[in-house]
Structures are given as C-alpha cells and as structure tokens.
Specification:
Blueprint (H helix, E strand, L loop, with lengths): L1 H27 L8 H33 L6 H31 L3 H32 L1
Helix pairs in contact: 1-2, 1-4, 2-3, 3-4
C-alpha cells in the first residue's frame, strides 16, 4: 500500500507543477525579451527537466508496478484507467507538447503560444483527472 501512496504523492506533485505552469508560467512567456529568449529557453529546459522528469519517471514506474501487482483489488478498474490515462498523457506530452515547446523556443509566435497553452491545458486536465481516479480508487477500496 505504501507504493500506492508514493504514486499518489507523485501524481499530486505533478498536478501542482502542471497547474503552476498553466496559470503562471505559460501566460508570462510572451513578456520575455526577444534578446534573452534563447538563453531563457536553455535554462528553462534544464530546470524543468530536472524537476519534472524524475517525478514523471517515478510516477510511471510505480504505476506500472501497481498495475501488475494490484489486479485483485476491487479498485483495480479505476487504478487501471488512471494508469492507461498516464500512458496516454506521457505520449501526448512527449510527442505533441514538447514538439510545440521546441517550436516556440525558436521564435515567438502568438499562434504557437496559444497552441502551447491549449496543449498544456489538455495535459493539466488529464493529470487532474488521473488524480481524481486515484482518489476514487481509495474510496472504492475502503
């Protein structure tokens, strides 16, 4: 059960990071000076990678472990749905949003910024739904 709570903690941490990015960080990007954009993008990539990738990696690893170990639980369908959602969100994040972010880093374009906000909102809402599914699995198994 401890690994489930570790997974839940990581999910909560990542949901908080995503909401911060969606509400605070992304709306501020257009205000970065064009001369500082390249240096800023490089620092952002490094800092965000150091914070987000370990959380995502450990969350995914613990979710996959639980996916195979908790199949006898009556909350398993909810947990399985949360795990499948996690897989889809990771694919979407790495295939779509990261590509758009690289495109945005090359040159500021309001259309790309708007696309980035929409893609990140999908990810943020998806991870929030994952969190709610995990909470529901606690309620069902109690």
């Amino acid at each position: 059960m401890a690994i489930f709570y570790f997974n839940l903690f990581l999910t909560v941490a990542y949901v908080g990071i995503l909401w911060f990015i969606q509400v605070v960080y992304l709306p501020m990007l257009p205000y970065i000076d064009a001369a500082a954009r390249e240096n800023f993008a490089e620092k952002r990539r490094m800092n965000f990678t150091m914070v987000t990738y370990p959380v995502m990696l450990f969350e995914a690893a613990s979710a996959v472990f639980l996916f195979f170990m908790a199949s006898q639980s009556k909350a398993y369908p909810l947990f399985a749905a949360a795990t499948m959602l996690l897989v889809l969100l990771l694919i979407y994040t790495f295939m779509m949003r990261n590509k758009t972010l690289k495109e945005y880093d090359r040159d500021f374009d309001p259309a790309v910024h708007k696309k980035l906000l929409k893609q990140n909102l999908v990810i943020t809402l998806g991870w929030t739904l994952r969190f709610l599914l995990l909470i529901a699995s606690i309620v069902v198994s109690a």
